[in-house]
Each structure stands twice: as C-alpha cells, then as structure tokens.
Design goal:
Strand content: 25-35%
CATH architecture of the largest domain: 3-Layer(aba) Sandwich
Order of helices and strands: EEEEEHEEHEHEEHEHE
CATH class of the largest domain: Alpha Beta
Number of domains: 2
Distance between the termini: 34 Å
Strand order of the largest sheet: 4-3-6-1-2-5
Structural class: alpha/beta
Length: 234
C-alpha cells in the first residue's frame, strides 16, 4: 500500500503518532496491524521493516501508527522514523489481524493494555466514539509512570470505566499502583461468565496474563491477545 508521510504529533513525552496519507483508501478493521517498510542506510539488527498496530480509526482520513522512543537507545529504524519529512513516499502492508471488536455488540469487554499496547485499544475506542456506538467496556491500563498514560482524553470522553495501574507513581498518588497480574485484573473487572478479555502489551505480560487467567477459570475462547515483542514488562 503506497502512502505519503504527512505529519507527526506528540501524544505524551517519548510517545509519538505518525500520520500517513494513503494514495488509495484502504479497508481495515479497528485494532488491526500493518508493516512499515522504511529503507535507510547502515540499519542495525532490527532491520528496515517493523510491525505496528494502526492507532487510527477506520473513519479517519489518514492512517496512523503510534510508538515509543527511548532516549539514546532507539534502533536505526526508529531514528529514521523520527526524522521523516512530510511528503516522503513509503509503503505499508495491507492491514491484517483478528484483534478486533466482536461482531456482537452486546458482549461486555475488558481491555487490558500495558504501555504501547494501548494502540489497538485506542483504534477500537476511537472507532466506537466516531460512530457513537456505546458498548460495555472496561479499560485497565498499566504503565511505568503516570506521564506515560496516552490517549486519556479520548477514553474519558467515551465514558467507559477506566483504571490506570501505575508501577512507579508519584508521591501521594491515589489509585492502583504496582504491577499488573491476573488477580488484579479479575478484582478490577470480575468475570461474570460473559466478558471477553482483550490483552495487549509486552509479550511476557500478555502471555502471563493469558495463562494465569485461564488457570483462574476464564475459558480460552474469551481470552484474546495481541503482544508487542521487545517492550518492557509491567
């Protein structure tokens, strides 16, 4: 899919969204992912291609990806991405993946996101917000620090219960603190036998939550996962 880089915007410190204008209108479902081909000289072992969730809504005029940068430790791919100039032609793979909303809007959903794993959640909730479709959704969002919470305004506007879990909170912070595990997920969003649990974030976090929730009695068919390799655990 041919696209042209349009602009970038800071979501929170160290997290940026990059917007691409497609030459032909693509069809995709909120929550799906793509691969960006970003040719550059002297690339490191991470190469010139990276997978990203589309953080935009299917109703947006452009496509977006959202990623985190780490001062002094970014790959050559991310260094190149950060320096992109508007008007640069690029290629994105056709969107794919099944980490998407269930067709039945009556199913209650629990989104459990860690760090940059919030991007498919943003895509889905932005789509629901755009279409004014209200679903029974609870969001549990784990981050390292309070400053890393992204897209907060959208989640508040949509109006679903929203619970941050902050690993290293500031002094006098009132709210959920520490690491996220299956026991905490079920304490914040008890399983009535109907909920679908959507887990997105670092690979170890998602694998551990999926395994432990299954051990605690949540059937595998109600556990939907999407992991991001190479990101830190929460």
């Amino acid at each position: 899919m041919d696209v042209v880089f349009d602009h970038k915007e800071e979501v929170v410190p160290q997290i940026q969204t990059f917007w691409f204008r497609p030459l032909k209108s693509p069809m995709f479902i909120a929550g799906q992912f793509t691969e960006l081909y970003l040719p550059h000289d002297n690339s490191d072992n991470y190469g010139q291609r990276r997978w990203f969730t589309l953080s935009s809504s299917p109703l947006d005029d452009m496509l977006s990806i959202t990623t985190r940068f780490t001062s002094g430790h970014d790959s050559t791919f991310k260094q190149t991405l950060k320096k992109l100039q508007p008007g640069t032609p690029l290629k994105l793979a056709e969107p794919m993946g099944d980490f998407v909303l269930p067709k039945d809007p009556r199913i209650p959903l629990v989104f459990v996101a860690g760090g940059i794993g919030i991007t498919p959640v943003h895509s889905m909730i932005k789509f629901l917000h755009d279409t004014q479709e209200q679903r029974d959704i609870r969001l549990i969002y784990a981050v390292g620090t309070l400053e890393e919470l992204a897209f907060v305004q959208l989640f508040k506007e949509y109006g679903s219960p929203y619970t941050p879990v902050v690993k290293r909170p500031p002094d006098a912070y009132i709210g959920e603190v520490g690491s996220l595990d299956a026991s905490r997920v079920l304490a914040l969003a008890p399983d009535s036998g109907k909920e679908y649990y959507y887990m997105s974030g670092p690979e170890v976090m998602v694998e551990t939550l999926t395994k432990d929730l299954a051990k605690m009695g949540v059937p595998a068919q109600r556990l939907i996962s999407d992991y991001f390799p190479g990101y830190q655990q929460f």
